[in-house]
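Hi, here's the filled form for the chain we discussed.

Project: internal
Contact: R.S.
Residues: 72
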Amino acid sequence: MYPARLITRPVIYELGRKFEVVTNIRQASVTAEIAIVSLELEGKRGEIRAAIEWLESLGIKVEPVEINTIEG
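And the returned structure, exactly as it came back:
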């Protein structure tokens, strides 16, 4: 979940440039107040951890989701 102050920032683009991860947006809901994004990250475990820590340092709440939940 993104706080309102980050909604217009291209965070997912920055994530892909800053870390060696492949991003895949699975689902998204964006309003003027909040953005909720289901994002699949693929890459080495250490890179994924670093990417998640970076997102959290920006104030983005990260909650792991099982892939089977998304695929149905």
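Let me know if anything looks off before we file it.
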